[in-house]
Amino acid sequence: MDPIILVLILVSAIIGGILASLGVHLLPVGGAPAAMATATGVATGCVMLMTGSAVTGLFTASAVASFWEFEHANIALVALSGGVGAMLMIGWTMLIANLLYVFGAGIVPVSGRVAVDPITKESQTEYKTPRTDGHGMPNVSYISGMIGGFVGGFGGALIYVTLENYAHFSPATAGIVAIGIFIANAILAAYNIGGTIEGFHDPKFKERIGVGLFAAFVVSLLCGILVVVAVEIFPSLGLGGAL
Amino acid sequence: MGEEEKAEEKPEEKEKFTLHFPNENNLAIIAVIAGVIVSILPVLPAFVKGIGAILVILWGADSVRKTARYGLGTGVPSIGVLAMGYGIVGGVTGIVIGSVPALGGGGIVEPGVLVGVVAVGVVGYISGILANNEKFIGMKIPGLERGMAELGMAGALAVIIESSMIAGTWNAAVVIPEIIETGVIALIFILAAFGMLQPFNSCLGADERRGRTLLVSVEIGGLNCIIFGVLASLIQGMAQGVPLIALGAITWVLFYSAYVRACLNEAHSVVGTGLIKTMR
Lengths: 243, 280
What we know:
Number of helices of chain A: 7
Strand content of chain A: under 5%
Strand order of the largest sheet of chain A: 1-2
Largest interface: A-B, 43 and 45 residues
Distance between the termini of chain B: 28 Å
Structural class of chain A: mainly alpha
Order of helices and strands of chain A: HHHHEEHHH
Strand content of chain B: under 5%
Largest sheet of chain A: 2 strands, antiparallel
Oligomer: heterodimer
Number of domains of chain B: 1
Largest sheet of chain B: none
Order of helices and strands of chain B: HHHHHHHHHH
Radius of gyration of chain B: 21 Å
Number of domains of chain A: 1
Distance between the termini of chain A: 14 Å
Shape of chain B: globular
């Protein structure tokens, strides 16, 4: 295959992987403590949140990509629609979780890591129950989560659409390979933040983001090389059709 | 007199059900040998491949146990899903490379598929270094590098073996339309991931015992064989599918009852809630 296309596939795998990692770092992830409403964030792990939203993003992206039947799909449009799908999913998840926290557990969404909400300038400390680490999704975490969902979904859909357009993968193969690369990056990012994070205002974010993105770069480079090898070899099998 | 009776009652010897699993290194070697033989010889009948798949999943579960024991900070399932994430990338690459005629594709022995397995093992080892080294993520889990390499390889082998269980071969010409296009690959992804992550996820705790945890893995391997046996009988016909279903059903019944017995024996006491009939 044309070397420029191979490089394009590799680059999109790397960019997609780095965006996936960045997206995970931006989500408000509460883990087990949030299940008892004693930490800020949604009460589940990074991997579940990010995979859920990215798979939704891939669905919207593949639905949009199916409008181009005989020509290359528009990369920007498909990737953006993936971002919007992921954003919707994470937005609903955080909204319903907030409803449960506020009306079910009777607590106020409040950040545990900052005294003043950096976006709305609302004071946080006096609403926090003593000896907890915040509750629910305050405004800043919600916005951070929406950005995270968008970035992650964009990355996943970018890998998908490049594989479909330029490597001539079938939608199913492109989707499953994109999920494979995405999940490897999302889980390394989850290990990097070590369980819980509130969003971009969390001090942990600044501390860990560099390392997380570097790890994502290396892993997606290696996974990208494997995919490029498969793309390069497949046409030589003479099977015809799409991988 | 009453005292003596109590004393007699107490030393009721609790028979510990123990299946003597080989130690971690030997289990890895056995699983690799079985997995390699089964994956380079796609002509083998489906139920032999089923045994290979059960062993590979068992190896993955043992690696999950080895690494997740120290606490990952984000839950045990993450590392099982990571294994299958790598497994999909390595498995698809291996399937395509293995189908090249120059590497034995289409012959009786098809060793080319192992390139994908080894490559993903290397990727796993490097990501293990990234995760464990203090200069990078710094998880400080002993043996995480080896664990991630093993998990990547086990995931890739599971994808390859289970694809060839269902379709009869892992050759790209068959696997891509029959397994990937139809979405069966997603089923392979999650069922094999369950076999690896679920045993330790459900058994972890202070009294976790390796012999008992691994029984769950074999049991889920059996469930995998039943489900893929149904698919295999649809795609390849009853002659391949039915023995696989039988293997899966026998494995599942044996190991599930062994696991329940082990739990009942090793628990301090078992009290029925009255909702369901208890075994004692």
